[in-house]
Specification:
Number of strands of chain B: 15
Oligomer: heterodimer
Number of domains of chain B: 3
Number of helices of chain B: 14
Distance between the termini of chain B: 64 Å
Mean pLDDT of chain A: 93
CATH superfamily of the largest domain in chain B: Aconitase, domain 3
Structural class of chain B: alpha/beta
Distance between the termini of chain A: 14 Å
Strand content of chain B: 15-25%
Number of helices of chain A: 3
Number of domains of chain A: 1
Structural class of chain A: alpha/beta
Radius of gyration of chain A: 13 Å
Number of strands of chain A: 7
Order of helices and strands of chain A: EEHEHEHEEE
Low-confidence stretches of chain B: none
Low-confidence stretches of chain A: none
CATH architecture of chain A: 3-Layer(bba) Sandwich
CATH topology of the largest domain in chain B: Aconitase, domain 3
Strand content of chain A: 15-25%
Largest sheet of chain A: 7 strands, mixed
Strand order of the largest sheet of chain B: 13-12-11-14-15
Shape of chain B: globular
Largest sheet of chain B: 5 strands, parallel
CATH class of the largest domain in chain B: Alpha Beta
CATH class of chain A: Alpha Beta
Shape of chain A: globular
Chain lengths: 129, 395
């Protein structure tokens, strides 16, 4: 799938997919990577080491620093794939150097599926059906 | 890539001006591409948010320290409130640990060359753009004031993007930097009596809630002081995300007048007040100065508190900018306020200080302060005029 590069990098990993937007500030534990927002589809799941696939970001701009904290604690997502990139997430990916792509039809990606994110070219490839 | 960069901007992006500048330029150009900007533009000043250690946490501090290694600001840059008065924090009950971390945050900004007076009203203390000037400000109330009351041009920046602009002197040209995005969309005819800052806060709450991000054209407001306008800006930005409004006869921007009209009545303001007045609120905390109090407001409060005593079990914070506090000291207002047992708190405010668990009920003149007191600190709230707040404090 062809999308748009937000921050460079190329990784292969397991997709963690949600249809809910994510607020990293207040919605994600900066030390463990666990989603803590009450009632969120991913509540209790950790974004750590996953290719995190979600529609868009929401919430406070301090959220950018949460992504930075996750990366420093080695609990960050491997990469981020969005439908529409929100500036808070974009800035978070840049400062923490997390590969990121948007303008992807995320409905085609299954939870747990192995995918490749080639952010340099803005391409997401499904490796296993 | 539709974004065209000058040779100097390209050099920044390639890292020829250092690591921090490269990262900053990556942020600016990426945001520019996301929003379809064609070029970057220079800005006259920056206001940075994300200063309170309470909000930033260790991660934010770590990022700022990394940037401070070789990042230096290129334009006039001021800071949003911190989590405490940088000098008198001890007597306000702030812990040593928090104070140490807050000082590290402010020191990191100082190394970058930021003017480290911490206020949400930079326009009152020397960071004052003129009409038509491009700036990059965070702090939603100041953004709304700058765009609407002054007629400068800024997007609603976040902490990291404002900092990136400070380090490069550039922002991407999109959103509210373009005249076509500043045109009024809905007319609000105010048929209600507005007497004090709290009324303007309630008006902001009513219009903000109804309008969301749609740009309001407001008629029927006969006059408004700077203090009333800053109260309105804070509220309309908090409850609606408004970055710019037009107020007939008061704000300077030109716009076609929208046909679609909504009416705001006394009943609407009363309903907004009922909404912010929590049942069973036991007031143990009174705070005025959201946004930061002007010297005029402090003079009035000093007069009301002169020779009086704050009641037992009540804490009073009048929050303001450090230069305004210094002026209040010179004028004797500080002594009158502090001798009464109230605190004149510089640099901080009740929305970003670590106050959770310390109080149960807040009385304030600010609709914005009510929002954060309820959401973040779980206080019950009551909104009143400044005069009523001070009366409550000494009763």
């Amino acid at each position: 799938m062809q999308g748009r590069k937000i921050f460079k990098g190329k990784v292969i990993g397991e997709a963690l997919v949600t249809g809910d937007d994510i607020s990293f500030y207040g919605g994600c534990d900066p030390e463990t990577g666990e989603i803590v927002e009450k009632g969120h589809h991913l509540e209790g799941k950790s974004v750590s080491g996953k290719i995190l696939v979600f529609p868009s970001g929401k919430g406070s701009t301090v959220g950018s620093y949460v992504l930075y904290a996750l990366k420093k604690a080695e609990k960050g997502p491997l990469a981020i794939v969005n439908k529409v990139m929100d500036p808070v997430v974009a800035v978070g990916c840049i400062i923490s150097e997390i590969p990121a792509v948007d303008q992807i039809d995320i409905g085609k990606i299954q939870n747990g599926q192995k995918i490749e994110v080639d952010a340099d070219n803005g391409v997401v490839t499904l490796i296993e059906g | 890539m539709s974004l065209i960069l000058t040779p100097e901007e390209k050099e920044m992006l390639e890292g020829k001006h250092g690591k921090a500048t490269r990262k900053a330029m990556e942020i600016i150009t990426t945001l520019g591409e996301i929003y379809g900007a064609k070029r970057l533009i220079p800005v006259a000043s920056v206001q940075i948010a994300g200063v309170s250690y309470h909000n930033l946490g260790e991660a934010g501090l770590e990022y700022l320290s990394e940037i401070a290694e070789d990042g230096r600001v290129r334009v006039l840059t001021t800071l949003n409130p911190a989590g405490m008065d940088m000098l008198e924090w001890k007597k306000h009950g702030i812990s040593e640990d928090f104070a140490m971390n807050q000082e590290r945050v402010v020191e990191a900004f100082e190394r970058m060359g930021v003017i480290t007076t911490c206020t949400c009203t930079p326009y009152l203390i020397g960071n004052l753009p003129h009409y038509g000037e491009h700036i990059a400000w965070a702090e939603s109330s100041a953004v709304c004031f700058a765009n609407s009351v002054i007629g400068a041009l800024t997007n609603r920046e976040g902490g990291p993007s404002a900092l990136a602009t400070a380090l490069t002197g550039k922002t991407a040209e999109y959103g509210f930097h373009l005249e076509e995005n500043r045109v009024a969309q809905v007319k609000y005819d105010v048929q209600a009596e507005l007497k004090d800052t709290d009324d303007f806060g309630l008006l902001g709450q009513v219009i903000g809630t109804r309008t969301g991000k749609t740009i309001p054209y407001i008629t029927g407001v006969e006059k408004a002081s700077i203090e009333e306008l800053k109260s309105f800006c804070a509220s309309v930005a908090t409850y609606g995300g408004v970055a710019i409004f037009h107020m007939e006869g008061i704000t300077p921007n030109r716009t076609p007048i929208p046909d679609k009209t909504e009416v705001v009545t006394d009943d609407d303001l009363r309903a907004a007040r009922v909404e912010l007045d929590d049942e069973g609120a036991k007031i143990d905390f009174i705070s005025v100065g959201c946004p930061h109090a002007s010297i005029k407001e402090i003079a009035e409060i000093a007069r009301m508190l002169d020779g009086k005593k704050v009641a037992n079990g009540k804490t009073v914070w009048i929050t303001t900018a450090k230069p305004t506090k210094d002026l209040a000291v010179k004028m004797g207002y500080y002594d009158k306020i502090e001798n009464a047992g109230a605190f004149l708190v510089a640099d901080a405010c009740c929305a970003v200080a670590p106050l959770k668990g310390k109080f149960t009920g807040l009385m304030t003149d600010s609709a914005k302060a009510c929002f954060y007191a309820r959401g973040k600190n779980k206080f019950k709230t009551e909104i009143r005029t400044i005069e009523q707040c001070i009366k409550e404090a000494i009763s």
